[in-house]
# Entry
Amino acid sequence: LDGARVPALVIGTGYGGAVAALRLAEAGVDVHMAEMGMAWDTPGSDGKIFANTIRPDVRSFWLRTRTRQPLSNFLGFPLDKDVPRHTGILDAEEFGGITVYQGRGVGGGSLVNGGMAVTPRREHFAAVLPTVDAAEMYGTYYPRANAGLGVSTIDPDWFETAECYQYARVGRKHAQRSGFPFVFVPDVYDWEYMKREQAGTATRSALAGEILYGNNHGKRSLQQTYLARAKATGRVTISPLHKVTSVAPAPGGGYTVTIDQISTSGDTVATKELTADKVFFAAGSVGTSKLLVKLRATGALPRLNGEIGKGWGDNGNVMCGRANHMWDATGALQSSIPTAGIDNWAAGGAFAEVAPLPTGIETYASFYLSITKNPHRAEFSWNTAAGRAELNWQTAWKQPSIDAAKTIFDKINAKEGTIYRTDLFGTYKIWGDHLTYHPLGGAVLGKATDGYGRLHGHPGLYVIDGALIPGNTSVNPFVTITALAERNIEKIIAADL
Ligand code: FAD
# Structure
């Protein structure tokens, strides 16, 4: 790798990166991918590649000495514990006003996410990506993305009887009694496999609480879909535990890319330099934004424009739980893959997933992740003295999200005679308003880049991940990230190669 010249370098192996690598390789271009996380292809001492949510271990968190679980408390007990510092799979990256959860490893967010694969309603698309032709997206690129990701919906008959979705049926009953539209949410999980988990004829994964730290079976991450196809072309190579730190114009054309190879304890073991004709930033909204604000401020890429770092949003994520009556048990066995949601976007600005609480015991709790129409947008900037990128999001900016979520849950509580849980995010705290799973923006399409992700000022540099999307997708984001990447790479291959 050191000293090599490559036609295309892709930074990161999440959705945007995987689409770029596959389509470039199919067009005959050799691609190298640098990924700061691990490969996640080798079982640990327990015979499993990924750790369980009930027992987080060394594999669970990215370079922390104490876990930072999204659900920090239960029945008055704090859940976090000490772990050895290791390049684990889930990064809880802390900025001043928000903790941003991200996947680390070959497959990016697809390793740790719920696999909920939701295409926004077409009437909301103009607000999601105002500069993109909706007819093209819904006619060509959303279908292409859904097919490439292996998206499907739960068998509705099985849903009615499956023990592991009792929590979702209780969620439906409460939503419908309050007059809210209830929808099935598609997913990339293999539903036939889940049926066998429930029947006891396959090793349990979704039904064993596997999700945040990876699924050992059943979930189709990018490792099984886009990245498998990319590798099968024979033109794509991937270097795990390789973190890109700089990109700058090379004297003879192209770009010099500086990459730190790191150990599993996070120490730099080698620094490498290669030259790439084209560089695709696919390090995720946060990773791409952090790199670009640094490269502009330090003069490595001086012609990047003033939009770099701007337009960042949290997709309006906010969580809450409700305490049900004893006759509304949600079940001790809960599938970790959510499959249903309450759509109050048009009336109240909230789309709430009925989420699992896979504790293994009956909790009488209903738990929700809401995606809301939050108008606040933050900006990344480079702090020269501290040598790090900062984000100016403020915790108080979650208030519009809480208000939107309350349009659903205040009404349900009133109808059911129930109350919010106050024990899940601390002591006497109702709202999980300190985090996001859905970082979006920082190099917005049509602002920091042209209409197809070409960075202004430096030909041959592209953004092709969630950084392009201006802060909100009205539903879970990865299908939109994938579809936009499909659209952009098609244009780039046709026009720039
Ligand atoms: P990512 O998938 O984040 O990939 C970026 C990659 O780049 C990462 O692998 C990272 O390690 C690597 N990288 C970063 N910086 C560097 C660097 N300097 N050098 C080398 N590599 C680098 N979305 C949904 O649609 N449905 C869901 O059900 C859902 N659930 C989620 C649950 C959790 C717990 C989390 C964390 C996210 C969830 N998401 C979900 C969000 C979704 O996973 C992300 O929106 C998506 O992964 C973003 O795709 P991306 O291509 O922009 O970047």
Q: What stands out?
A: Residues 11-16, 34-37, 101-105, 108-109, 112-116, 212, 243-244, 282-285, 287, 291, 437-438, 465-466, 476-478, 481 surround flavin-adenine dinucleotide (CB under 6 Å). DSSP finds eleven helices and 20 strands in the chain.
